[in-house]
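It is worth pausing here to work through a concrete case rather than discussing structure prediction in the abstract. The textbook approach is simple: state the sequence, then state the predicted structure, then interpret. We follow exactly that order.
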Amino acid sequence: MLGSARLLIEFLLIVAGCEVAVMFLLPWLAPGLAAWQEAFLDATMLSVMAAPLVVWRAHRMAHRMSSAPTAFDDFLHTRNGVLPAVVFVVGVGLTASLAWGLHQQTQRAAQSRFDHLSSRLIALASEPQAARGRPLVLDATLQTQASYALYELGSDGAQHWVAGQALAAQPAHPALFDVTQDLQVGARPLRLQVRSTPRFDADNSQAMSVWLALLGIMLSAMAAVSVWLMNTGRARAAQLAHTMTQDLLGAQREAEKASRESAALVSTLNQFSMVCVTSPDGEITDVNDALCQASGYGKDELLGQNPRMLGSGEHDPFFWIAVWQTLLHGQPWVGEVCNRSKDGALYWVQCVISPIAGANGEIDRYISIAYDITDTHRAQAELKANAERYNLAIDGGSDGMWDWMNVNAQDEWWSPQFYRLLGYEPNEIPANLVIFDSMLHPADQKATFVAIEKAFKDHQPFDIEYRLKTKSGGYRWFRSRAKVYFDDFGAATRMAGSIQDVHDRKEAQAKLREHSQQMSAIFSLSPDAFVSFDMSGHVSYISPAWSHLTGMSGHGLIGTDEVTFSDRLFERCVPGQAVCSLAALRPMDHAEAHEGEAVDGGRVVIEMKPPARRMLEVRLSRSEGGTVSQVLHLRDVTHETEVDQMKSAFLSMAAHELRTPMASIYGFTELLLTRELKPEKQKDLLSRIYRQSEAMAAIINELLDLARIEARQGKDFSFKAINLADLVGDVIRDFKHPQDRQAPLTEWPDEPIMVWVDRQKMQQATLNVLSNAYKYSPNGGDVHVRVVAQDLHGKPHVGVQIEDHGLGLSPEQLARVGERFYRADKSGSIPGTGLGVTIVKEIIELMGGHVAMSSEQGQGSTFTLWLPCLEASPSQFASLDEVQPARLTEPADH
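Step two, the predicted structure:
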């Protein structure tokens, strides 16, 4: 396209340049021509000048575009261009010389004739009658060849016409000759103007020289073209000879190449193909080594034999009839043939049998080229069998198959089972993404397509469960798994998978989930822990109480086997347990257990390490049926164990405390019975027996009182709203302090401080603490009794605070205050049973309060009996007589 535009522009420039040259040369070469003559001469000169240049340029462009020129081509084209140009230039030069000579000769002749005519007119104008204004008498020659005008010159230089014709100063067609002559005729100055007529101009025209120049240019151009054609013909002949030589050399090279390729092809055929050549009569005339190797026959065994000796009998006669019909029609036959080797083994070949015709057109031999396809044939047979099995699996399997062949399109493929799972006949509805989306449950659409997008973009596995609407209108649960195929750039191209009906499983799971939720709710309300194992012996469930009882998280134990679970559990136990594994909890003999009945492994108590520090009763129950193989039951028996331990300790301490006075009573009684003693001595022993009996009675009474309080848990308390200050005042008034000691100092507010207590029990507790204050300050010192108030745990409390300045307690002693039979005084000089503070704590705690103690050895002790405060007015207390306060579940940290 660019070359054509360039050539067109060059043509236009050549024509324009030649036209400019003609416009400059034409007025000079041929003045005075008519308009049509000037146009014709212009076109002729333009054609003569531009045509050779245009042809030459077009030829150069065509040659350049045809092919890359060789050095030989450049030489020929240089010669063909230079010689015609020389001929043209020489011809134009000769023509220009002849035309110029003719032009000069014609110009001199016309000038001579016009000078003769002007001299005659000057002579006529010099006569006197011309001065008088008479016209000049002219003959026929002067009238046709020249025109004149006679003027009289004025004094001012102006001229006035006298005779002749009025000649225009600027004629439309300029004359060849125009002469002006001033004359003096008589006394009058005259001016004579002589001009050649058009006829004179035509008779003396320069057209002959122009036509001669044009004819010479045309002859020069023709001569140049003739020379160019001659040279071109010669160049074309040389080029043709050169091309033919190159073609012959190329054909020789191609023939040699074809010969080499044919030899390579024959060698390849001999190496990798079995070749057999037979005569028209069917006798083998030639075979290659590949055929001998495949058939097991030697070459000498095959030559001269009929190819039927390789037949296997696997093909029927119609097969061979079709083969021969094709060959007899002169057409090659292509197909698969089963042959039998010499050892009897069958082998398949892909065979091409071609008839070869001789010079007379008759078939003179057959050539068979074959290659072994036994493995391929066997693979195709196996592939066909696999395809049949695959179709049987698709049609008869329980899963439905689907294939989204192009993820950028809507069309899909669904297997017959896919349709049947949805209640449709195969191909009853279109298989495409739009139909699938319409069948998908609205609640599952977002999750399904998000899973598809993740499979496409993040290469995540596609495995999801969703609901599809069946033909009956109901929804069923299906599980869909698929594989996504990607191209080389990582873009998804195809997605194929299957759907499995899991509706029954989902319903069973829902029922199981509901049952599990119910059991979890039951277990969550139970303080005991339960651990269930599935049939494979792995942990399947752990109740919420497990973490509270053992201090271990249950999440990390789900799915562990029995051994691992057992090891982790007993790692948290204190060493030296009765059992060290769950296996030890199983009964040794299960022969008496019937199938489906639970087998109890017995009761074992284990102790957990801190921070749990609990005593747990462990039972292992095994079941022979269902989905649970065994259940481990853990129950917190810490309190029971502590109670048992406390009972044992209490009995031991009670026996010890009772044994001391009993031993004294026994010993003193034995002395009285076995010896004769003075009355004074007898009285002293009896006094001791009385005091020891009184101590034993006090111990027994306090034990009975404590046992009754613990047994009844405050149920026999009679609660009323009581002013605590009045109650403390009554206790102080009834208290008999030692004679050598002052009464306690009291301090409480004037306004009533109401509490909800049992009056008698509260007085007992206050009196007990007040008595201890005097007993443990034998050296004297004031005892202060106060009623104080304080907010504890966000609730208002009031307390009876009793402070002494006695012996005081060490931190170790203070920590043990309240233990049964514990006494800080080991000397026995201070009377007591060691049960007083224990009874006080039980009473106060049953009334919703607690006991706070502080002491410093040698400085004294302070006991505060804290109780919840009633904020209502006294007028409302009557309605609270029957109300029993809830006992605090946890003692305060005081």
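Step three, interpretation. The chain is about 50% helix and 20% strand. The first strand starts at residue 146 and ends at 153.
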